[in-house]
Task: structure prediction
Amino acid sequence: MSEVKCNINAKEGIVTIDNQAMVFHCNHFNRNLQATIENCRHIDNKKILINSAAEVTFLGLMQHFVDNMDMTTSQRLEYAESVYKYCGFGLLPLSQVEMENFDLTISHSHYGRALALNFEKRHQAGEYFDLGFAIGALSASFMQPFNGSLSKNSISKGNSTTTIHIKKSEDFRYLFELDLYNEYKAESKGITAEIPARITGDNIDEDTIISAVSQAPLFGNEQGLIPAFGVELTRHYADYYNLISFHFEQQLTKKLEQRPALTDLIVYDYPALFYYQQYINMEGMALSRTLLIESGHICGFNTMGGIMNSDVWDNLIMPMIKTHEDWLHGIIAAINALGWGIWRVIELVAGEKLVLRVYRPYESLGYLRKFGLADHPVDYLVAGVGASLMNLLYEGDITKKPTLDLDYYHKVNRSKTSFWSEQSACVAMGDDYSEICVTRMQRG
Result:
């Protein structure tokens, strides 16, 4: 297989492959974020998921092919297959492609496995990212547009394989008009603002933690999967998350402006909203924002909770921990190795309050690349994870290594005294950093 190279900028907390920002996320976040978009019947949800995957894949691979002009078509296909495997997406046999119209059979799929964990039985295949990756990879490799569709049988529906039907098509001709160099569409001080040194948490050696996590073998195994910390990880395209989240937000907001009465119907599609409407006015953009933050809650609970429950935590970070609050400083240090930017604890009041600043947050940077300056805060992952960290530490007690199941999630994230984040600064709005303040939720 072709070698895939990660470029790690530890100073800014940014990781790239072929000029595409890459971030670690787990199967629970991936399936929940997809479900958030897929369950909205009032927007073009499938197109959002498939096209976003095709775009980021195409841009990354095209950058690699431009930098390596002597690659043959077969070498391009092999490299694309290697990227898919390295990132933990599974096994996609692109190097076997020889015809214009054909089927691709996926024997291992991260998204297929993740979606199969959902409580509701799927009625149709859901491997939209895999389909989009195949479209983007084939279009870049052959330098002509392809399209495709998912078969009825899929891993996400409980079958042993997923089949993608591929054909040539002009539907994705627009990929060749995208900005290959992924430049920012607007300036923001946060793109180049100075990143301060650690302010608190003197017991935690952040540099050692970042170095250890960065050097860990977190890449696809023989099945193209990354099992770690009790979850399955992906080293994923940051702009895939950004595109699907922001397009979801934009389309849903526009639809609600046209038909305000849809608000009541949409609440019934998302059980979580029945809880959060006690605290938040569920109108317009606030509805989509709450759903995206909820995906961040799930990420913080499962991925960060999984890390704090892991052998890696016990062996690497526990020896540094002297106080209860060191647990939070330790997990923030680990986060700074995930490609999410650089997180800094500005204020921590035990059991009451957390103020976090994030420099180079991938959501804000992605918004600036794709849309320009924002008129509202967009760092939903930061907000959700920040709240879940406080819930894990003070609403529950992650130090006792609890079982991170759905019952425990509801106990710590949806009690009457759970924590909630409010964003007070945002790089996408022109600020030096993104900042959230996490406190216990107030009704009304």
DSSP finds 15 helices and 14 strands in the chain. The mean pLDDT is 92.
